[in-house]
Amino acid sequence: MIVILLGFPGSGKGTQCKRIADKxxxxxxxxxxxxxxxxxxxxxxxxKAADYLKKGKLVPDAIVIEMVAGKIEKGGKYLLDGxxxxxxxxxxxxxxxxxxxxxxxxxxxxxxxxxEAIRRMASRRTCSGCGEVYNVASRPTxxxxxxxxxxxxVVQREDDTEATAAKxxxxxxxxTHPLVAYYKSETAFEEVDAASSPDKVEAALSAVxxxxxxxx
Length: 216
Ligand code: AMP
What we know:
Elements: E1 2-7, H1 13-24, E2 27-30, H2 31-40, H3 44-55, H4 61-69, E3 78-81, H5 87-99, E4 106-111, H6 114-123, E5 124-127, E6 133-135, E7 154-155, H7 162-176, H8 178-186, E8 188-193, H9 198-215
Parallel strand pairs: 1-3, 1-4, 2-3, 4-8
Antiparallel strand pairs: 5-6, 5-7
């Protein structure tokens, strides 16, 4: 089963994927997390991607598609977070899934007002060690600046600062939002209101995944 989570940066895709991946036995494939890990490890892909992430721009499609293609296995159950982000990537995904006898089963669009997405990104903090996500307002660390889980420094992502966050929302509207119309006509498509509490979003998301599972 292949499920895509679409939504503004800051709409809670990563948080929700972490909550539901284990529950449904999905592998969580988050291209932003993969790029950050590649950059930290100073790999060739990381070197190519670093400047795009810093500026809030999209990494070129060919690089992203090749990277994801290397991670998709036959028979795998994937929760795709942050991929695809362009129509070309959606086509690349369709091709790579066809190659393993699969297709996208469900697309869930997490909807959120733009101002709320900016507010969430500005207050988000991320562990530089394990990637755990915090929020200075709603989910602070127990000790300021220190990850509760691994003890590494918790920092603001360079691309979560207000100016870059606003840029990323524009990029979403220009390049990623067209995927809404694309997938609405191609596959099962559901909208979930991401402005409600994480528990409510999780419940709504679980319900649409259950519905899709039952219909397969
Ligand atoms: P995210 O953690 O999903 O917000 O992604 C952070 C950054 O990683 C984005 O602003 C892009 O620079 C890059 N990135 C992640 N996923 C993709 C993708 N599918 N296509 C292009 N760039 C991506």
